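> forwarded from #structure-qc
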């Protein structure tokens, strides 16, 4: 509703959340609009955000989280760092400081999801900060506390990456894929950006 926010005032506010939201994902199709929230308790929550319904319920601009939440699922054991729905996959992907990527279905409310990555053999967490999907190459790239960029095949049940791109000297904060130039780009707190 950017057209209604010209004066800088919020159009609506989702209140009554019992956890702190840390990341937001959004998608829409012909039938509905959904918002995904990842929180500090490892939950992924799905909210209905159809504009007509929001306008009906929000006479004063305040919306009840309980009234608009479709469901909530505890997918991670630590903070959720990113959540995104990818229509090409028909799945939602989330990452967490627990060191995992989770791929799961939202439409069928299935609690089953696949896990990519794991806690190392000594129990140390290798937090995942971000990820990116490439529809052209059909891979997920992820980055985080490790100094590697991992490339995953989301269609297999294997929990191991297809490739690990090594070269950063510190944790990798963000990764993106430039499909037009066949590049994967990462940036790190080692004050470098790498083009792979």
């Amino acid at each position: 509703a950017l057209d209604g926010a010209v004066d800088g005032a919020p159009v609506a506010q989702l209140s009554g959340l019992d956890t702190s939201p840390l990341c937001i994902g959004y998608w829409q199709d012909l039938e509905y609009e959904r918002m995904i929230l990842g929180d500090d308790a490892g939950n992924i929550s799905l909210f209905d955000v159809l504009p007509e319904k929001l306008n009906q319920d929000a006479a004063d601009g305040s919306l009840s989280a309980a009234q608009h939440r479709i469901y909530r699922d505890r997918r991670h054991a630590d903070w959720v760092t990113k959540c995104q729905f990818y229509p090409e996959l028909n799945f939602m992907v989330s990452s967490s400081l627990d060191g995992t990527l989770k791929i799961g279905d939202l439409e069928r409310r299935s609690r089953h999801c696949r896990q990519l990555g794991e806690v190392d053999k000594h129990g140390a967490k290798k937090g995942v900060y971000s990820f990116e999907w490439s529809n052209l190459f059909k891979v997920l790239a992820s980055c985080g506390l490790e100094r590697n960029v991992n490339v995953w095949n989301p269609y297999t049940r294997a929990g191991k990456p297809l490739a690990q791109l090594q070269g950063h000297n510190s944790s990798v904060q963000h990764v993106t894929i430039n499909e037009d130039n066949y590049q994967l780009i990462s940036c790190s707190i080692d004050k470098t950006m790498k083009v792979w």
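QC bot note: The longest strand covers residues 21-28. The helical segments are 51-57, 65-68.
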